[in-house]
Amino acid sequence: MLTLNDFSGGLNTKSSPRDIAFNQVQSASNAVLLNSGVVYTSVAPTSKGTASDIEISEFVNTAFTFNTQYDISSNPNPGDGAYSRGNFQGSPKEVITLHEGSTGAYNIRFLSRSFNNTGNFSRSTNNSISGIAKPVFYYIDGTLYISDESHVGKTGDIAFPVRTAIRFVDTNRFGVSTFAWVQGAAVGATSDANANIQSASSFGTNSVSLNVSGEFEMIYQIESSSGGGGFEAGDYEWSYTYVDLTEDESLPHIWTTAPSAASLSTGHFFTGVGVQINVASAFREKEKGFRIYTRRKDKNERWSLFLDADYERGVRKNLFDDYSSWGGSGTYKSSGTKEVTSLVIESPALDTYDSINGYSHTEESIDIDAYKSACVAQRRAWVCNVSKEDKTFDDRIYYTPVNRFNTFPDSYFLDIGINDGDSFVAVESLGNRIIAFKQSKIYVINVSSSSDAGWYLEAEYDGHGCTKKEALCKTPFGLCWANEEGVFIFDGTSIPKELTENISDDTWSTDFTSIMSLAFDQKYKQLYVAVDLLENGDNKIYVYDFAKQAWSIVTRSVADSPAQSNFVHLPDGIYAYEFEENSGTGTAENITVKKYSLLDIGGKNLTLQTKDIDFGAPGKIKKVYKVYVTARDAGAGTALTMKYATDGSTSFGSSANATINSSQYEVNAFTVGADCESIALEFTSNGKVEISDITIEYRAKYKRAS
User: Which of 76, 406, 603, 659 has its CA 20 to 30 A from that of 535?
Assistant: First the structure.
């Protein structure tokens, strides 16, 4: 008797079927092999919600997941404004983004469910962000940042939005509650259209009027009768900035339409300083306030903070002072103005624009048009393959200042591998390192230092690139990715290691496509590799178990094409959404959110081929009498069929059948009666079957094979 009762070695198509280990198999489909003592049929993905009226004509891999404390399924009013108001706060939400639309009419929609819930996802049909053709996401501190990679490489007139952000705002703006989802572009350039300044004792003099909601005015007087001021003598000019909800601040805009510069003599200072702002309606709700700066004219000095205005708390003279609360007769979103008056500023603040933000006010730009990949590390955002100011930098990585996740100064970049004919595909964080992927090369950048002066290129690896950012995922064991050569892992210290060492080159070459997706199952410590998302039919998902260091293969059955989104991982498993085409019209009308949990037993059709067994006596003939299979049924009468192939043949025939009816393990006998040098067994089933062991009854005939 020879017994096979350990299948944990998984799939091995690299070695000869006779040379693989006894705990490995030469072929398998929908067979979970990762438990030492049992093999069983995998489960089909389960439905976790549906959505109708979805229009898909261009397939893009744009599923992304994040958690939020607030309900995102309410009706929005996107744009530079706020989503519909109301008490949306409830249980925390798990969210999956859904991309839909045809050329010129793209939408990002949101499917959500309660956090840490295993139930279904649902969406509101009105909930969307429009105009993004190929979105790229990153999420940090409650804000979802979105770019459109389709604009990388484009110049001239670009349709907007190219970049946007969405976050929930729970503030008391000018004494009125703002409780809403807010969407808007990055902090942009300011202009004189929204601001006024004058030397005056009261607001509204010299024909200044605040006609537009959000427009503000600053007034001041110069104290000349008493000394003691800390300002140096000279003419002082003004600038102002807007501060976003994310704390990102625009570049200073010099007040070109302001009256002549304020002239101060030694000892003079500012008195009667006041700010008034039109609050008649909602305005620029992605902003939290504005700042006013001053400096001596024509001295090329840094901008010194003069006033810090916050729409919720009021106005202060520097970042260490208490706020003076908003007063005035107006009511936010109703009528009138709010104001703060009678401030005295005797000395310039220690805070400057440069010290507050960590970059120079002399930067030409702090914005980018679009990028192809992004990640967050060391409290910075990192993006690669960037379009900025009508130029494309496919060898460049831009990064933000610390805690400024939407600000990309011109000087904050790394040029790596320039002019090598290759382009960056993806960036990902791994501890205190940035791993940057081109199509044929990997760069490892150590960013552990708090200063960019301490960063350095730690390593680079040829021949280990990545073709698509969806073919890359992060695991606790390192970064995993797929390319034409196989599946690889990199832990940040050692060289990249191939995980598909037991998969033959021919097999991988056949299965590999440019449209792949990887994901990591946190619960079971498994890596999923879907090899072709666009095709319909039964397509493979490779599953790698890190504990067993072994592969299984399952299939997903999708009826229509385009078929499936990229994977996303949630605490309870791996998710994707599948498309259902409407009667051959070429557009997908419905989607279904699917959960993949491959360690659960299911009823998919199983195929399992053992190694080619020579019983430790190659070249000698054996009589194989019977095969005994210990199995149980987890469904309702599972048919189990056995076929065999002898002497290295790949043709399996001479089938025998058994019906597994018991929920307890029972022994099923299959008659063979073959003389052979070696034998390989194939098992197929149509339902939920568990196989505990396979025992072969044989006798050596001591006859050498011809």
Answer: 603
| Beta strands across the sheet bearing 424-430 | 424-430, 433-438, 441-446, 456-462
Domain that holds residue 406: 361-596
Q: Which residues of the chain have pLDDT under 70?
A: 34-36, 53, 55-61, 73-91, 102-104, 124-127, 155-161, 185-193, 257-260, 534-538, 557-563, 581-589, 598-603, 634-637, 705-706
Residue 100 neighbours by CB under 8 Å, 6+ apart? 54, 55, 56, 106, 107, 109
In a domain, 57, yes or no: no
Burial of 310 (0-12, 13-18, 19+ CB in 10 A): middle
Question: In angstroms, rounded to a whole number, what is the distance separating the alpha carbons of residues 477 and 494?
Answer: 12
Q: Which of 145, 164, 184 is the last residue of a domain?
A: 184
Nearest to 178 by CA among 243, 297, 303, 86: 86
| pLDDT for the residue numbered 611 | 95
Tokens of 139: 């999420």
Integer CA distances (angstroms), 130 to 78, 106, 372, 464, in order: 8, 6, 19, 36
* Residue 180 and residue 197 in one domain: no
For residues 292 and 222, state if they share a domain: yes
For 202, other C-beta atoms within 10 Å of its C-beta total 10
Give dist(CA 167, CA 68) in Å, integer: 9
Residue of 11, 103, 142 lying closest to 540 (CA atoms): 11
The pLDDT of residue 78: 38
d(CA 452, CA 411): 11
The residue with tokens 């939290």 is 288
The Cα–Cα gap between 469 and 373 comes to: 7
Tokens describing residue 52: 């109708």
Q: 196 near 256, Cβ under 8 Å?
A: no
Alpha-carbon span 321 to 344, nearest angstrom:
12
CATH code for the domain in which residue 573 is found:
2.130.10.10
Which amino acid would we find at residue 473?
C
| Residues belonging to the chain | 706
Identify the pLDDT of residue 224.
79
- Give the global pTM: 0.90
pLDDT in tens, 437-457: 999 999 999 999 989 999 999
- Name the residue among 381, 388, 418 with its Cα closest to residue 403: 381
What single DSSP character describes residue 252? P
Give whole-number Cα distances, 523 to 65, 477, 569, 596, 602, in Å. 17, 14, 10, 12, 18
Rounded to an integer, what distance in angstroms lies between the CA atom of residue 438 and that of residue 434? 13
3-state helix, strand, coil in the chain (%, to 5): 5, 50, 45
**Residue 91 pLDDT:** 63
What is the domain count for the chain? Answer: 4
What is the token pair recorded at 194? 């929204």
Listing DSSP states for 438-465 in one string gives: ESSEEEEEE--SSSGGG-EEEEEEET--
DSSP-assigned letter for residue 507: H
- What whole-number distance in Å separates Cα of residue 139 and Cα of residue 131? 19
- 54 is a domain residue: no
Q: Are 95 and 109 in contact (CB under 8 A)?
A: no
Q: What's residue 558's pLDDT?
A: 58
Q: Note whether 103 and 179 are same-domain residues.
A: yes
